[in-house]
Amino acid sequence: MARKRGRGMAAGWYGIARTATVDRAGAWAEIDDGGTVKIMTGVTEIGEGILTVLAQIAAEEIGVTPQDVTIGDNDTARVPEAAHAGATRMTYMIGNAVALASRDARERLVAVLAAHWEVAADNIVTANGIARVEGANQHMSMAEAVHLCKSRGVVPVGSASFGTDTTGLDPVDGSGRPWQAYVFGCQVAEVEVDTVTGEVQVLGVWAAHDVGRAVNPKGVEGQIEGAVVQALGQALMEDYKLDGGHTTTPGFAKYILPTALDVPQVNSVIIEDPDPIGPLGVKGIGEPAMVPTIPAVMNAIYDAVGVRITSLPATPEKILEALRAKTNAKASVAAE
Amino acid sequence: MPDLRIDAIINGRKVSRTAKPWQRLIDFLREDLHLTGTKEGCGAGECGTCSVFVDGVLVKSCLMPVAKAQGARIDTVESLGRNELSVLQKAFHKAGASQCGYCIPGMVMAATSALRANPFADREEIKERLGGNVCRCTGYQKIVDAVELARDVVNGRISATALEEEETADGRFIGANVRRLDAPSKVSGALKYAGDMVMANMLHVQVLRSPHAHARIVSLDISEAAAMDGVEAVITSEDVPGVDGFGVFVHDQPVMARGKVRYVGEAVAAVAAEDVVTARRALAKIKVVYEPLPAVFSVEEALRPGAPVLHDYAPDNVTKHIPVRVGDVARGFAESDLIVEQVYETQAVEHAYLEPEAGLAHVDADGVVTIQSPSQNITHHRHMLARILALPINKVRMIMSPVGGGFGGKEDMIYQGMLAILAIKTRRPVRLVFTREESIASTAKRHPSKTTLKMGLTLDGRIRAVEFNMVCDGGAYGLSTEGVMRKAAILGAGPYNIPNLKMDTYGIYTNNTPSGAFRSFGALQAQFATESHLDICAERLGIDPFEIRRINAMRPGSKTHTKQPLKSASLLAALKAVAQASGWEKGPPTSRGEARRDLGGPGNRPSCTLGSRIDGAPGQARDEVA
Fold first, then answer.
1. Of A41, A59, A190, B444, which is most buried with the most CB atoms under 10 A?
2. Residue A173 falls within a domain, yes or no?
3. Does residue B45 come out as left (phi exceeding 0), alpha (psi in the -120 to 50 range) or beta?
4. Which domain holds residue A34?
5. Is B513 touching A (CB cutoff 8 A)?
6. pLDDT digits (tens, 9 = 90+) for B425-469
7. Is position A317 annotated as part of the catalytic site?
8. What gap in Å lies between CA B375 and CA B443, rounded to an integer?
9. How many domains does chain A have?
10. What angle do CA B420, B422, B423 make, to 5 degrees?
């Protein structure tokens, strides 16, 4: 049979946020007229879904809905520094900073409500746009609560900074605390290798990743699916080539990317091992999900046809060459 | 050539305008009609971001001369869901099908076309019909989910309520599948990326790039270009007012080449002109005399004694070496029953975000130099730019525009400096939009790597020693190389207890395209080696691949390779979860594919389905539902 199937697995780990340096993020929050919320922090979507994640965090912490939350544009002259968009740090660094800033703003609002209702602040619940006293009848909308605050001369604002307890590495033996949160993951890949054409199809990937706490599970899946496919591109087809410093892959006709027809079914399993340090227990997923895919696919190719690809990408040409070498080796052993 | 007269019906309205004969339909839509929902991703018909309907047929508008639009009916993404989102757009919102969003308008158009052609298309047919549209973020899974959802609403199999937000338990939003708040702006094409933005009185920037991998700039004469009608400014490294250098760890890269060029595609000069065509013509008038220098195109060449040197500060061409040491590897190998050594190599990879680099700069009324670009690190860019411009830091303002895919590739400040200097010089807003070719040739790649890995284990599968040596081609400038080497060194040996470890990672300068930040940042290359290697060792020892990892797994309290105790560690949970989910059949990795009984389960897609559209007659599917 020309097409042979096999399975492989691989694991991986990753550090969350900036490496071997102190990381930090700041955020401002305001509970605004109409019971809406403004969050100001150095963040813009790069596609990972962070705006929605931050809106979910602020909404739950303050007691409104995500649709009530507006996140200000990332602008060095207008919002507090939350450093860069990368290093799998957005949910961890900025999510935790926004949670703390939201709690700070809520405290201001709740203090006014507690005085108004003559109850302890701890007895006040804010959720879904309603402020109420636990176990009693007093309640009002968050819009009314903000109005009440302002009539008492209080604008319910808050701010926070979230930083890491991390160090650089020793220049001689590398010891140090590069991160305070680590994530782990594992994937299985199932492949079909065509021994006539050398083509490898990845049919299924099972991916289990620890994210600490999933703020938006569908968003986590989206990160895993995208990471697996990006890794699959590097595993099987993508190859930026140079000849004397000039690229010979100058456009997408030569630089081949995975399309909808190339991708496996990705089966995600989200593991929640909460971060013991940050206030939310969240970690991250953007980069770690990419780590196990390539070795899992290479191990699966070996399982299917007995050739070990150690030089990426595993193009059809490379697979065929390896299969030929294997056949020749067997033949020469037989001849001896 | 005389201007063309274009009379067309565009999004249901009659449009009568003149157009330039060299314009493509995409230029006419975006630049003349400001219909920027149609995105340019490659300019070559390869990516599908510019998909529109011409007389009802899905067309890539970057491949169609505007002259062909005469008399045509053209519908762009802006024609869909004018009052409320279309079913398909709502399905994209519900399914979480958009991430960066740059491919999404084109994807929505292709999906609309697919369901118009066959409202009963199955999953494989949908994938085939979307085959001409590239997405770099999502892995396509949720896009196809969305099209299937829309299909079932459109053909009446399920109710439209399936498109609505899921109910959430009383105010508990952390952990809920809240629909992405930015999705409506992306599925409708309303979101403006930097290349979609215009400012009044704006100039257009083009960049002259080096044709040499390594050369001395003998002379650079801009006079003829600067004197051209419509050219407002031409800048070179002489126009940099402050300290000319940027980079993440070492500021080794000038805003434009200074004295010499170090890679093909490096910026040498930049022009701001009234339109892009004039700016391009001006580039051709800049006279540069180069004296080619010997170049190095591999780490082996770069490390050879007497090799050409790229940067004076690094006479050995080593950008960075990171060591990690635990125990005594010689003793570890002596204690081992099995020692396996193998070399692993990975290639350079392009980020291929669908949004090519773009940016706008202007000087505001208070003299603040303001730059809008899809930069992943405006904080650091502001620091560097203030130094480059010799301005107080609060006179430099960076705004992060929506990023149409980054993956680390937009962390480096490779063009914002030129924009700032041109805005200061012309006192007018300036905009630069890269072509795909420019983006590929001039921006950073994933570090190519070569790893020699030697591992010693006992017969029961315990790792006793690892010697890991990884050498990476960092290309012509430092960018994130130091950080990538550090992450590779810390994580490369994997999440395993290794009592004796000698780990070295090296980033090397060459005259290749620079390498930089790329999602998974050195950890990917290094762990590819370790995870392949563990399977080789497991086969030799007759141990199941999950088991060999379990035996060595870091657990809570384990020390990492940098001697940090782990407060928590979830590797064992991840191993267990994926073995269960995949129904993994235990056994050593001995190429037992043919004998396995765990293959072909429900977590797989069907194998090669190309042609399903042709094989499966649409009529049959319709009958089945009716």
1. A190
2. no
3. left
4. 24-160
5. yes
6. 999 999 999 999 999 999 999 999 999 999 999 999 999 999 999
7. no
8. 13
9. 2
10. 65
